[in-house]
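Let us practice reading a record.
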Amino acid sequence: MSNSYFRNLPNFEYVNRTNDGKNISDYTTVKNLFKKGKLREDIFQDLTFFDKYFIKGDDRPDNVANEIYDDPTLDWVILLSNNILNVQNEWPLTQESFTTYMLETYLNFDRTQNTHHYESIEIKDPDGNLIFPKGLEVDEDQSVTYYDRGTESYVEIEDMVTEVTVYEYEEKRNDKKREIFILKPKYLNLVFDDLEEMMEYKKGSTQYVNETLKRADNIRLF
């Protein structure tokens, strides 16, 4: 059975204001898109419920869901597990989309080869002690001086930076989005039960019809 997110959304009836709605009692039934599902905080904040995962190639959320859960309609579990609200901005671009983005942003390929910034390389002393970490954004002329106990003298390292081009920077930023968390399959039923409860309407509202249906107030004026 499909586990589509939208299948879980409750219904909402509103007054039909289209030309075919002739009577005051005519309603149109739609899914209530304002109802939002989410993972419980005690699950979302606990890493033992998740595995790390690296998105491959041009895979979409449904591809990942199919690989992990054998069900592409569970793409919403992938997105909720990573608090992704906007797939276009928060999911890694496909290679074609990435190329289009680069050309639209930088106008031509040559500009993508310009220097974006410089990063440090890892510096250790002869004993293997870390002097300067790798990957920090630094100035082009960054240097570091440390005391070498073996020679009992100060050593200055000047050649300790590497250039990062615009293309490399954007590619790394896109690839960072590939590092996500996957809810372990054995916890899926917990999420299904939580979602079902979240989507239920509660009694007490004048719009309440039943647990899966609300009806808008009819304020049509004639």
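A brief commentary: The mean pLDDT is 88.
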